[in-house]
């Protein structure tokens, strides 16, 4: 009997073990379901939203500030547009922002971190020094300044955030790469005549993937939060594009009577950030890494 | 030992001066690549080309860029950031007038963060894996993931429906309009001038903004304190103390907490950057009228001189806070200052 159990354990691959650990973690599963909800809602927005055209510049003053009811599940906004439909489309904007920022910040930070961790001397000093300086800049203040210089828009918000975001990835990858670079097998690869590029891409980078993916998931939460804050302050996506932060800012003028216009997009942001955060925590336990 | 500590501090100061220098360079470059002429923004669309040219000359905008940067840096060191492009008043004066409001808010926020975050973290570690611990985990998760503007708005909404007497806008009730004290920190001024009614009123106004601002920090500090306490509990010297029969209370507060305070303090230094950012949001929601609200307005109006000053002062805030934290950590833990000074 004992022999059989042992055999089964051996068959489990590392990936399968990780999956089992993930599945056994209810928090991570809830997080994954929340993220899936947000992503699916964003992708299939035209099919799910009760009033897909309300994502644009529709005006229907008869239903101005309509309270939540059978037609408008989450009420209507100041020009009579369905809040639920706009929230669903708002997820699209949030996820686009996340995608854009990560597409710039992860490779940039990753490459700089790898280089600083692998090469010693002035490369390391220069990159870590610059990273530390950038980390000391209050991100929102800087993003506001950048977002102001460039005209407020989704693309410019992406650039403004990405310009600051790469630093965290650089620091993280640097830490991992530095410790991996000291391993014997890296030394062995070097002695066997492998090029720097080969060592970086084939020996060191694979060891950083777990950390990067956990960090990226957690990042998604904070980029959504950050982007929503920027647009709440009026420096993000411009109307009539439905952006969750802008919707909160718009609805704020009509508090406390028409609370749905603020609470629906506000809690939608919270739902998305919470989901990504739980999923990120789950992945961290699964890969057993420190981020 | 004293020399080691001095060297440790000097290194830190030099590092932070470097941070401010790079920040100044970045914001300067940013302000100079902006499409739009600062002189034209200042004078408005009706000014003649000669007037604009004259102001450009006065502001030194026709000088070579490196020279402009040196001028800007020299001015910044003396506390001179030029005049606001919108109001025409010296930027430094405008900021100095608004700084106390923000400073008061941030200080009270820090007090709330520490007095709630650290003890709750200690308790969570003490009753690890209990229902209490689970509740605290949820609270800290909510604090970290909820947008601060949503939390601020929820507080306001709650007051609007259920706590109608509670002030949700501004720093003082209308009855006390025009009150001015020596420091600009209204609670302190109220106490100093013997007007305890004003101090109490100012505290009431402070409560919601400060709580909204403290939320994310409380969560972080709680989590870090908890894990630091748990980690240090296993250390040999702590085990030794316990085996000598030192009461758990003494071990926790006299030995464990001192060791475990370092991690949350470090985090607080890093958190300070996002605290300043969130101050922009919270001040806006509560019409606080502080430095951050003014900065936001300047940014929206493209008042470049004010924007540059706001970014630099925010950076300065961060740097000073971290310097203070480094000193405190160095005092708590001699190992750090010895290691760093080598």
UniProtKB/TrEMBL annotation, chain A:
UniProt similarity note: Belongs to the binding-protein-dependent transport system permease family.
CDD domains xrefs: TM_PBP2 (cd06261)
Bilayer topology term: Multi-pass membrane protein
This protein's GO CC annotations: plasma membrane
Alphabetic keyword roster: Cell membrane, Membrane, Transmembrane, Transmembrane helix, Transport
The ABC transmembrane type-1 domain, residue ranges: 91-280
Pfam families referenced in this protein's UniProt entry, alphabetically: BPD_transp_1 (PF00528), OppC_N (PF12911)
BP-aspect Gene Ontology terms: transmembrane transport
Domain of life the protein comes from: Bacteria
Localization terms from the record: Cell membrane
TM regions (residue ranges): 27-49, 95-120, 140-166, 220-238, 258-279
Protein name: Peptide/nickel transport system permease protein
Keyword Cell membrane annotated: yes
InterPro entries in the record: BP-dependent_transpt_permease (IPR050366), MetI-like (IPR000515), MetI-like_sf (IPR035906), OppC_N (IPR025966)
Keyword field contains Protease: no
Automatic annotation (TrEMBL), chain B:
Xref: InterPro entries: BPD_transp_1_N, MetI-like, MetI-like_sf
Keywords assigned by UniProt, alphabetized: Cell membrane, Membrane, Transmembrane, Transmembrane helix, Transport
ABC transmembrane type-1 domain: residues covered: 99-329
Gene3D superfamilies the record matches: MetI-like
Presence of the UniProt keyword Nucleus in the record: no
Keyword Repressor: no
Superkingdom classification of source: Bacteria
Cellular localization per UniProt: Cell membrane
Family label: Belongs to the binding-protein-dependent transport system permease family.
Name of the protein: Peptide/nickel transport system permease protein
